[in-house]
Amino acid sequence: MTARTPPRSAAQPHGTSGQFGTGDQHSSTDPHGSTGQHGTVHTVVASPIGALTLVATDGVLSGLFMERQRHLPSDEVFGQPDAAPFDEAMRQLHEYFDGGRTQFDLPIALSGSPFQVEVWLALRDIPYGETISYGELAGRIGRPKASRAVGLANGRNPISIVVPCHRVVGADGSLTGYGGGMERKQYLLGLEQSGRRPQ
Fold first, then answer.
1. Tens-digit pLDDT profile for the chain (199 aa)?
2. Where on the phi/psi map is residue 125: left (φ > 0), alpha (ψ -120 to 50), or beta?
3. CA gap 26, 86 in Å, rounded
4. Which domains are seen in the chain, by residue range?
5. Of 68, 89, 93, 106, which is the most buried if we count CB atoms within 10 A?
6. Contact between 195 and 129 (Cβ < 8 Å)
7. Euclidean distance between CA atoms 130 and 73, whole angstroms
8. Between the CA atoms of 152, 54, 75 and 34, what dihedral angle is there, to the nearest 10 degrees?
């Protein structure tokens, strides 16, 4: 199952002075980064938590992966290198890491089982700076006894950060696991809870 979601309204960003490597810039005809092209392409950008691989399918963001992330797809899945579809995504990531963006306003394409997509869409409703437990997330999708399955789906989220799987924690508030690594989860939550980039 592939679910495409339209852009979401974003908070007005403020201040973008932080460092965020965007590589070679290419212009895009669509304000949200879509170039109207077909197929799958990717680009790699630097960030405060290491290199991020952004993937687009038919011009729409379909993947955001960290270095040494669990369940990382093979390189073939990423397609050819091409930064053209990612101008808007890179701009918004820059603002996010600089503490100036609290919500992403990007169209995305989620590809997974119907249950996985249901979980991933529910992740987008967790507010910036807040966390919920796996059990609470299961309850939100009407499956209160499926917290373990929800956790597994959460770990397979293909669009990290933009689809904020890092905002799900254990029932006791512990960070528990994270596909990108516990240090990155701690960094992202610290960034959001403080409203500024951690030192």
1. 777 765 664 443 333 333 455 443 332 323 344 445 679 999 999 999 999 999 999 999 999 999 988 888 888 889 999 999 999 999 999 999 999 999 999 999 999 999 999 999 999 999 999 999 999 999 999 999 999 999 999 999 999 999 999 999 998 888 887 888 899 999 999 999 986 555 4
2. alpha
3. 8
4. 2-97 (no CATH), 113-194 (1.10.10.10)
5. 89
6. yes
7. 29
8. 110
- 190: tokens are 């610290």
Cα 117 from Cα 24, distance rounded (Å): 32
Number of H helices, E strands in the chain: 5, 8
Burial class (CB in 10 A: 0-12, 13-18, 19+), 22: middle
**Residues with catalytic roles:** 165
Burial profile 70-81: b = 16 or more Cβ within 10 angstroms, e = fewer: eebeeeeebbee
Measured distance CA(111)–CA(63) in Å, rounded: 9
